[in-house]
């Protein structure tokens, strides 16, 4: 949670903003009128990015979009005015003091889809291996049959022919897959850095699961705070 105290600097008559123990005077084209108190309002931003304005003194005049307020939830672009003189504070003045929030929840689906594609590719490879083993089973069946009935049995020849055809079919399929499977794996790996990125700055989050990502507090690149 971040709290910003806004008021008039008694020495310089500039607008002063204090947040996280740091204070800064905002230079404007004209002095802040006397109607603005030294600690006129506070603006609090919680961990969900909700921005709340609080009037700090009952004698202070505070307006949001032209309406007098004591407490008000703000949204970007709201017009804030202080004092009877309606001294206006632009949103651009507040923006550097307000932490940036970014919703990372859509990244959960991106990671889950990536994992599912990897899993389906592994399943496909294993199924191909199981089917290839069928050739050996047919050949073994033919050999067993030849032991009990002799090689002159038509069934023996049929099984060998079937085994040969199946073996040839799987050889062709394995040959084609030998080029397709690595290519597909590479496509899946290449797609992740394009989709699994910070919604704020667009940097690749890395090959970490969403569960690990969501344990962090902010983007390591743009410092935007994660909304989970």
Molecular structure report:
Helix 2 runs antiparallel to helix 3. With 228 residues, the chain is an alpha+beta fold. It is built from four helices and twelve strands. The model has no long low-confidence stretch (mean pLDDT 82).
Query: What is the general shape?
Result: rod-shaped
Question: Termini separation (Å)?
Answer: 15 Å
Measured on Cα atoms, how large is the radius of gyration?
35 Å
Mean pLDDT value: 82
Q: Outline the low-pLDDT stretches.
A: none
Determine the strand fraction and express it as a percent band.
15-25%
Could you give the order of strands across the largest sheet?
A: 3-2-1-4-5-8
**Share of helix among residues?**
40-55%
> Count of DSSP helices?
4
Spell out the helices and strands N to C: EEEEEEEEEEHEHHHE
Helix/sheet category: alpha+beta
Largest sheet: 6 strands, antiparallel
Number of DSSP strand runs? 12
Secondary-structure blueprint:
Blueprint lengths: L1 E7 L6 E5 L2 E5 L14 E5 L5 E5 L6 E3 L2 E2 L2 E4 L5 E3 L4 E3 L1 H4 L6 E3 L2 H44 L4 H42 L14 H4 L11 E3 L1
Parallel strand pairs: 11-12
Antiparallel strand pairs: 1-2, 1-4, 2-3, 4-5, 5-8, 6-7, 6-9, 9-10
Helix pairs in contact: 2-3
Observed structural traits:
alpha+beta; 21% strand; 6-stranded antiparallel β-sheet; 4-stranded antiparallel β-sheet; 4 helices; 228 residues; single chain
Short description:
This protein is of the alpha+beta class.
